[in-house]
Amino acid sequence: MVENRQYDHKYKVQAVKFAREIGQAKAAKELGVPKNTMYGWMRANRLGNLDLGAGSQTPQSAMTLNEELIQFR
């Protein structure tokens, strides 16, 4: 029987940050979270639906924001 677990926002944020450091599959395994669940959280973060808070910009997104700033100037 499959158990439907509920994860709070703080747990999701920490899990995504952890997955960014060591990899999505490895983080899911170490945390005991289904891979598909971790995938969903990572995707939600990429789409802007899961905010990781201040200081969570990746180098790629930072460059994009910098490029946008240059265009506006």
Description:
The chain is mainly α. The chain has one domain. The chain is built from four helices and no strands. It is elongated, with a radius of gyration of 15 Å.
Q: Count every helix, treating DSSP H or I runs of 4 or more residues as helices.
A: 4
Output mean pLDDT.
79
Distance between the termini: 57 Å
- Unreliable spans: none
- Structural category is mainly alpha
Based on Cα principal axes, name the global outline. Answer: elongated
Can you give the helix content as a percent range? 55-70%
Rg of Cα set: 15 Å
Q: Beta-strand level of the residues, as a percent range? A: under 5%
Number of strands: 0
Helices and strands, in order, run as HHHH
Largest sheet: none
Q: What count of domains describes the coordinates?
A: 1
Please tag this protein with its features.
single chain, 73 residues, mainly alpha, 4 helices, elongated
Describe the secondary-structure layout.
Blueprint: H1 9-22, H2 24-31, H3 35-46, H4 59-72
Helix pairs in contact: 1-2, 1-3, 2-3
